[in-house]
Amino acid sequence: MSGPVIPFIDLKSQYADLKPEIDSRIQRVLDHGQYIMGPEVRELEIALEAFTGSKHCITVASGTEALLIALMALGIGPGDEVITTPFTFVATAEVIVLLGAKPVFVDVEPDTCNIDVSKIEAAITPRTKAIMPVSLYGQVSDMDEINAIAERHGNLPVIEDAAQSFGAEYKGRKSCNVSTIGCTSFFPSKPLGCYGDGGAIFTNDDKLAEAFREIRVHGQAERYVHTRLGVGGRMDTLQCAIMLPKLEKFAWEVQQRLEIGARYNRAMDELGIQRVVQRADRTSVYAQYTVLVDDRAAFQTHMQQLGVPTAVHYPVPLNQQPAYAHLCCPDCTPVAASLAKRVTSLPMHAYLDTALQNRVVEAVSAGKI
Ligand SMILES: *Cc1c(COP(=O)(O)O)cnc(C)c1O
Questions:
Q1: What is the DSSP track for 283-350?
Q2: Mean per-residue pLDDT of the chain
Q3: Which of 92, 97, 134, 285 to mutate for ligand 1's pocket (most ligand atoms within 8 Å of CB)?
Q4: Count of alpha carbons within 13 angstroms of residue 2, beta-carbon side
Q5: Is the pTM of this model over 0.85?
Q6: Which domains does the chain have, with CATH numbers?
Q7: Which of 164, 184, 192, when mutated, tests ligand 1's pocket best, judged by the most ligand atoms within 8 Å of its CB?
Q8: Is pLDDT at 1 greater than 70 in this prediction?
Q9: Among residues 108, 107, 157, which one has the least CA distance to residue 128?
Q10: H/E element, 174
Q11: How far apart are CA 295 and CA 64, in angstroms?
């Protein structure tokens, strides 16, 4: 059952698979030398617009930068509130606080770990300026219901934190194109990653798209004309070039992830291991494949002894983090608090072959407590 340590994610196999295409794309950038806003930047944006069906894609320096620029374009600042989930990576709330606004944390569903839509309306106040659901582990939240709530409350903008869900679908629509704004990350370990930092913002709104483009380059409308406050938030030409061949292979990778996810689901259900649930009307890209265990420390030690790495996303809800606890009640999201103690992610990537999948399942089976 044991053997060499299984990679939690496997960027080397992916590179080996695409080496000639990636190497020649990199060489082309070195030859033309336009390292900032070279032709590959717009080429990638056009390919991402086609993939998502979104009218506008604006590449940016990271997923965090995408969220920050989205909030800046909406004019969010001191005194404003943004509704989001505490069960996410810190960047989701960080950008809200950076702008002087307040994150209002709404609890999550116990089975999907995504924001609990039935609790959103009670959190809306006259200061609410946006709703920011997170498509956690690669699965989009109940977006139709969220969009309907937003519309009922003065057309609040809805920002999907799609950092983990690029490639996922919701009722036939692609993640990043299911709300006012979609923000994703191309951090190497995300479902679609580059070889450094990168991200993108998506919208069908022309005015917002223009604002994103300006804010990305220091609020510049034309050279040395700064019409608004901005940031240095561009994505490197080299990273865009690297992503072009990766995007061509991505549909195959998503298919692999779906098959592995379905296989894991069947195995966990047979073993009676609790797991994150996927809704029937959407497909997760399984940015993480996550199970719920009561004695996580013992489970992780057991898995590690069998050469199967595990990870925790995330051990502490953001409203219990030292930097955020004062902003809200740290114990008003009991579901998130309980999930944080139990969630454990298993190895998941497109290059995880059947033999490795078997080893993961057998290790979980042997470690059933
Ligand atoms: C990764 C991640 C981010 C941040 O993306 P970076 O590219 O690392 O800045 C934001 N939100 C969520 C939910 C993430 O998983």
A1: E---SSEEEE-SSHHHHHHHHHHTT---B-S-SS-GGGSTTTGGGS-TTS-HHHHHHHHHEEEEP--T
A2: 96
A3: 92
A4: 10
A5: yes
A6: 11-243 (3.40.640.10), 250-366 (3.90.1150.10)
A7: 164
A8: no
A9: 157
A10: strand 173-174
A11: 32
